[in-house]
From TrEMBL:
UniProt enzyme class: ligase
Top-level taxon of origin: Bacteria
Species of the source: Prosthecobacter debontii
Transmembrane annotation, as ranges: none
The name this protein goes by in its record: Pantothenate synthetase
Family annotation (InterPro entries): Pantoate_ligase, Pantoate_ligase_C, Rossmann-like_a/b/a_fold
Residue positions of the active site: 33 (proton donor)
Residues where beta-alanine binds: 60
Other noteworthy facts: The reaction proceeds by a bi uni uni bi ping pong mechanism.
Alphabetical keyword list: ATP-binding, Cytoplasm, Ligase, Nucleotide-binding, Pantothenate biosynthesis
Record family assignment: Belongs to the pantothenate synthetase family.
Name of the encoding gene: panC
Pathway: Cofactor biosynthesis; (R)-pantothenate biosynthesis; (R)-pantothenate from (R)-pantoate and beta-alanine: step 1/1
Length: 281
């Protein structure tokens, strides 16, 4: 596996890389990231190249968020990438990606206004900016993203559509612990008591999805189920949002017939956990 740390090296690598499938990450990698790289490896077969990136993007962190304490575990991350099947990892410094006097940024004005974007203003502008830069640098033919951050996936699809990036986007199912908790770099922030309650997020989502499959299509009733389950089983959690939206437009739904998404974000002290389930016939 090749490690590249500069744009100059990356440009030279890309000239000989052929077809590339790309898995961008912010590091602090876990089994969820490994599954994305393995999926990319399977898509690539023996002919194409699997590229990943490890870059903690400062533009997507708010002033009171965890940029400074976000885990940096490069050596372990590189070992995971290699074991999962990556051929190249791009791991630049912040100055390598952003000029000190940078003055251009991509702004998203629709899909980012709800869900996580409502409480993290500017976050998805930072995501769009760095993903656009990485797409320009790596020039992938395809890219792989997890469905755990469904809003991010929807926005990246819109980014590719609106700015005509020649990149096919793949959304991969969320990887979970044995008790259902979605794998996340921020799970390591949880205390033992918080970790014991955190699986209630997926349990609540699963109960609401089961009710929908049984014929409950009204969002109000589905939300009641979610709130009741969380109140009973996640008393240490503080809800940021719980929403039922169209999975393409992210607009709220009163009735869910098909193509719905239940998404939530819950704080356990300083750890903000997100999760979701699709409602698809």
């Amino acid at each position: 596996m090749t490690l590249i740390e500069t744009v100059k090296e990356l440009r030279a690598w890309r000239k000989a890389a052929g077809r590339v499938i790309f898995v961008p990450t912010m590091g602090a990698l876990h089994e969820g990231h490994a599954s994305l790289i393995r999926e990319a490896r399977q898509m690539a077969g023996p002919e194409a190249t699997v590229a990943s990136s490890i870059f903690v993007n400062p533009l997507q962190f708010g002033p009171n968020e965890d940029f400074d304490r976000y885990p940096r575990t490069l050596e372990a991350d590189l070992a995971l990438c290699q074991e999962a099947g990556a051929d190249m990892v791009f791991a630049p410094t912040v100055p390598e990606v952003y000029h000190a006097d940078r003055s251009i940024q991509i702004l998203e004005s629709s899909l980012s206004k709800a869900l996580c974007g409502a409480s993290r203003p500017g976050h998805f502008d930072g995501v769009c900016t760095v993903v656009a830069k990485l797409f320009n640098l790596v020039q992938p033919d395809e890219a792989v993203f997890g469905k755990k951050d469904y809003q991010q996936l929807a926005i990246i699809r819109r980014l590719v559509r609106d700015l005509n990036f020649p990149v096919e986007i793949h959304g991969i199912e969320t990887v979970r612990e044995a008790d259902g908790l979605a794998m996340s770099s921020r799970n390591r922030y949880l205390s033992a008591a918080e970790r014991a309650q955190a699986p209630a997020l997926y349990a609540a989502l699963s109960q609401a999805r089961a009710a929908w499959k049984d014929g409950v299509t009204g969002s109000r009733r589905l939300l009641e189920i979610l709130h009741q389950t969380l109140a009973a089983s996640a008393s240490l959690g503080r809800k940021d949002y719980i929403s039922i939206v169209d999975r393409h437009t992210l607009q709220p739904l009163d009735l869910v017939q098909n193509n719905g998404l239940i998404a939530l974000a819950v704080f356990f002290d300083k750890a903000r956990l997100i999760d979701n389930v699709e409602l698809i016939r």
